[in-house]
Amino acid sequence: MPTTVTPYLFFEGRCEEALAFYEQALGAQRGALMRYRDNPEPQACPDGPAPAPDKVMHGAMTVGGTEIFLSDGMASGTTRFQGFGLAITLATVEEVERRCAALAAGGQVTMAPTKTFYSPRFAMVTDRFGMQWMLLAQPAP
Fold first, then answer.
1. Mean pLDDT over residues 125-137, rounded?
2. For residues 104 and 86, what is the distance between their CA atoms, to the nearest angstrom?
């Protein structure tokens, strides 16, 4: 099996909400989902009490051909997505505009969809969970 790198996002108690949002906004496909109550060998958490049993211990979704892992983490209620973003290359200008608008629901567009020297349409948006997305249309061949 080849080595892979998979983004792992911690939504601190809002993982199920995030999954539903990304299914709608990005067409994400939900994968595995394990709750804290599903752990046959629960362990003490060094940072305090374990999250509620119904919280997501580990989840997965696929956007396009990329798998992304997700969790409620310690369900602290505060997400801290800093120092990185996720970029999505889309097939058309229209899809960039549509996905940007969907991701911006409850969030903020930080760069409106526009033509750039490297893409016929590029946009940046921070979604309602604080996750930064960069969307770009593939240049014409």
1. 98
2. 14
